[in-house]
Amino acid sequence: MTDEVKRLSVEHFDARMELSQFAFQYQLSREELEKRKKQDAELPSAKWGIFDGDKLAAQLTVLDLPVYIGGQSFRMGGVAGVSTWPEYRRQGLVAKLLRHSLQEMKAEGQTISMLHPFSFSFYRKFGWETYIEYKKYTLKTSELPPKTAYEGRMVRVEGQPELLNGIYEQYAVRYNGMLGRSRAWWNIRVFSPKPEVSVVYYNESGEPTGYIIYAVKEKKMTVEEFVALDNQAYSALWTYIGQHDSMIDSVTLTMPSDDMLAYRLPNPRIGQEIVPYFMARIVDAEAFVAQYGFVPSADETKSNIRIRDEHAPWNNGDFELTIKSSGEAVLTRYDGELESAGALSIDIGSLTALLLGYRTLGELRAIGRASGMAEEDARRLEARIPKAVTYLADFF
């Protein structure tokens, strides 16, 4: 067994897919494998593996994706396809791959990383932390919002990523953690391979301000995406869903955690579940802070921060955070060691949850995930962090 992490290329495709199909328990036909190979080339990514001789023992993929944070686009490394053959598990191979991927992401300028965990506790050990939860609704047709008359029209469309993306982008920038979607992402990850219907709502001025992507099967409607730019579009889309009441018994969909469907209903006692979803971690704290937009203020804010990050040593240590009145900021490493008194001590995962808006500094201090800062200094720092809601409509 070698400890060397190697970059995988197209010549390793068959070995990669053999391991992936075994680990994630699915089977692709020869035609589907050829399609997957072509799709691989369309989505920018780096694939890494560890070999035992000529045999691929473990692998992961890092997708190069844009993600919105504070309305700005950040380069993000999306970790996916982490898998190991059973005979090589619990030998630290995934740990080596994750550490290597962090180094490579930093070198590539991907300042933040996201992943969908098979185990939250496992990835938390490597610095990733929960950053999003969504609401999952399951409604009987009798529980749907009352149908309302609306101006404008619904138009069923097939494909048309440019049209949907124009609506999606306006929606995505409102949340921290939403992807910026390329045409290839729309075609490969959103439209394919599911047999779904896309419907766009045009308001009375002829502007597209909402859409849903959904499927109906065995009297059940599953809404894969529900995007509304305003209340008018929101109500119109729910009325459109309600028009299916003669052919469905129930509707299932996911929405952001700030969605207020239950509050709008005559009877708010519906089936809803809060589901922890993706994890995130800052890859390069100094570079991330340099791009991050803090809340403008009349005065400059300085804070001493001790960051704990054992898997990315460039983040681990003592820093001074200077937030200018404009909201621009600089995170500067101390040459020596700062006095612990008055400094905020925080692990990289909690810092990620804080800056993405998933958790407040007060919440993190209350559960012992952040400590060491005087109350007044903590309040001053928290006032400079934008309030935000996290959401992700995609999966990888």
Report on this structure.
The protein is α+β, with helices and mostly antiparallel strands and 396 residues long. It has three domains: 5-110, Gcn5-related N-acetyltransferase (GNAT) (Aminopeptidase), CATH 3.40.630.30; 135-274, Aminopeptidase (3-Layer(aba) Sandwich); 284-383, Nonspecific Lipid-transfer Protein, Chain A, CATH 3.30.1050.10. It has twelve helices and 20 strands. Strands 1, 2, 3, 4, 5, 6, 9 and 15 form an eight-stranded mixed sheet that branches. A seven-stranded mixed sheet has the order 8-10-11-12-13-7-14, sandwiched between helices. A five-stranded mixed sheet has the order 18-17-16-19-20. A hairpin with a 5-residue loop joins strand 17 and strand 18. The mean pLDDT is 96. It is an enzyme of class 2 (transferase). Keywords: Acyltransferase, Transferase. This is Enhanced intracellular survival protein Eis. Residues 3-151 form the N-acetyltransferase domain.
